[in-house]
Amino acid sequence: MRGRRLGRSFGLLWTAYAVSAYGSGLGFGALPLIAVLALDAGPGEVSVLSAVGPAVGVLIAVPLAPWVEFRRKRPVMIAMDLTRCAVMATIPLAYLLGWLGLVQLLVVSAVVAAAKIAFSAAGGAYLKALVRPDDLLVANARFESTNWSSIAVGPPLGGVAIGLFGPVVTVAADALSHLFSALALHAIRGREEAPRPAGRSTGRAGALLDGWRHILGRPDLRALYLNNMLVSGLIMATEPLLAVLLLRRLAFPPWQYALAFAAPCLGGLVGSRLARRVVARHGRHRVLRTAGALRAVWLIGLAFVGPGVVGLVTVMAVELAIIVNMSLYTPVLATYRLEHTPEHLVARTLSAWSIGQQASIAVLTALAGLLAEVTGPRTALTVAGLLILTTPLLLPRRDRMPGEEPPAQARERLRGPCRR
Questions:
Q1: Which of 257, 263, 298, 376 has the highest Cβ tally under 10 A?
Q2: pTM of whole model > 0.85?
Q3: Where is pLDDT greater, at 46 or 218?
Q4: CA 78 from centre of chain
């Protein structure tokens, strides 16, 4: 990917994404932390904040999808950035005035979750119109690389900032990052054409479900969608279980716990940078099948984590293996999804995808928590690890997906641009 130029407009879009991603990385987990440190919230209140806010945001995002679809995407992205900036800025302001409460944190969590889904849907549609089809994988790989590097760097720096300046400083930084993201998007030149409705009228209630109809109506997308929901949900469901196991049962120091999750994220740089080269060599279907399976087989290793350095290394090794394969798989999936979605359905399809993923994470996290209450976190981790081993069965089984060219032909087509 080195030296591949995608133009000034993509550079500004990437800048906007990066600024926002690093701001969100810095503020990762900030709202539950504020609830504990500033409001003295208990475990039940923190659980409600972590689950209910994003769940309400998903519900808000459902009617937003057609609204995003039938409008120019860049103004929608700017509006979602400014919305997130505004609602997040109310937290440090209320904290300074002594007015901060749990209800406000819930409202902010819901609005931010909905705005993030709308922003991502508009961003995917805008990217498809902005770059050439041959460059979609390169662009998605760069976004993926930025995402993982922000997760590796942001949370540790956020922890230091909170220790030095108080609990709301990372939220203020996150709010400013969305403002700078909006400014970068505003700097993109060129007028975006207004989308032209296709098919059913934009005013019909059925337009809300068109994204799901498209996904479920294609066997390949349906298989990838169901696989993604289960894999994402089961992986994310292990995070609170692992926190209890490492911090309480195994007495890991907080810095070791943070290191166990931050350092492996650097593996995301490896997978995302290899994506285009690996697809050119082996074909997209084989990459999706292989990396899609490999991102699922390692999770069971978390059930065998022990105390001390060996336990720390075990967690880091398992997380690294998962993240390398996820970062290879995700840009290939994102590119395939964009290529096989009509332009008039992109925003609704991406919204449906995000909504399904977030709902799956919420449900499976709640179920895993209930199981851990009854049996213990290690048993719940074992069950999650065993269930995720079945998910490769949902991946498409055909030798090549619809419209995919043979690997040899892909290598020949991509060889020229790689030498630029």
A1: 298
A2: no
A3: 218
A4: 19
